Structures are given as C-alpha cells and as structure tokens.
Task: structure prediction
Amino acid sequence: MKIKRFTPLALIALTVLAIGFSTTYVTGADVTLLEKGVKAKVDSAAYADLNYEAKIVPYILANAVDLAELDAAIIADPDAAGENYGNRDGGNAAYSVPTKFTAVAGELKGDLLVLEIEGVSTTVYLQIGPALNGTALRDVTGQVKFGDFENQLAYQDIGTKLNDKVRDGVLSTVDKTTLTGKTLNIIGAFSLFNPAQFMIVPISLEVVN
Result:
C-alpha cells in the first residue's frame, strides 16, 4: 500500500480547517453584552467626573448635620433618623446621611482611623484610604438611580468611582500616619448599614493642629 504524504502547504490548510471546526464563535448578542460591559466602565467614570464636584459635594455641604445630633437620633430610631436626615437606594437599602463634626484622631487601623468625638457614643471611623468602601457618596443625594446607567456593573462602579475622587482629591496629600492625636474638621457621609459604627467617607478633611 502506498502511503499518501501531504505537502507542507496541505498540512497548514488542514490545520486551519481543524481550528475552524473547534472554534466557538461569539454571537452578535454576546458582542453586544461585551460592548455594554466596556461602555459601563466608561459611563461610571464620566458620571463621577461630571457630578462629584457639581452635585455630590454641594449636596453634602448644604445638608450635613452635626454628628452628635445624628448619633442621638440614630440611637433612638435608626430608620426614622435615616429617613429624616438621609436618602437610600430602595426600600431594603441602608440610608446614607451627610454629616460634619470636629474629632480627635485616635489609632490608625489600616485604612481606618478611629475618631473621638464629643457627644458621640457610637464607634466612629474615618475611611482614610487608600481603600475606600461602600456607596455612601453614591446614595447620599437620593438622585443617583439605577436607571441612569447601562447595567448593574455601571451602577455598582459609580460608587467606586466617586470614592476614587475622595482618595485622589481629598486624601492624596494627607499623611495618615501623622494624624493620631490631632484635631480634625470633617465633612462627609456614611451609610447606616450598621448603626453600631459609622464609617465616614470625607469630602473635606482639615487638620486643625
């Protein structure tokens, strides 16, 4: 029997053909989803650029309540305090409230700084970064809605992008290792996901001494 031999060009052609049969192609619908995923990231960043200084910061400055007043109201009735002083994203979400206060910086615990505040008995932390968590800035105005964004990815990502504005603009020039024992003037927001402790995201941080 004569063995049939293939030329190099024939072998290449067969290889390409085999790859074609084994390849899974992305459908038009899949491509659309991928494009939406990419667009979502662009939209959330653009939204933060457009609205952080123009809407989020002015709202907090105009509506910030002294933390001692908030603390007393939250201890009495967290839901009523949240409804009175803050906003939230849906009936089951935590309220986000704007606040202002003067504090003495305590122990630094990683990305958190313990705060001591006159008239406040609840444990309070300042999110000092570089990692900033939560959606307090996204939810505090009550104006940022899921329908404003392409999909759930973008809606979640806007919280991150707004926190990035704080990290890069408010906290980037602060040496957190030197704050313990110093007096701080703080304006910011926090979510009432745990009324037993407040995790403040600052839009303004002034080191008094």
Remarks:
- The chain has one domain: 26-207.
- The first helix runs from residue 8 to 22.
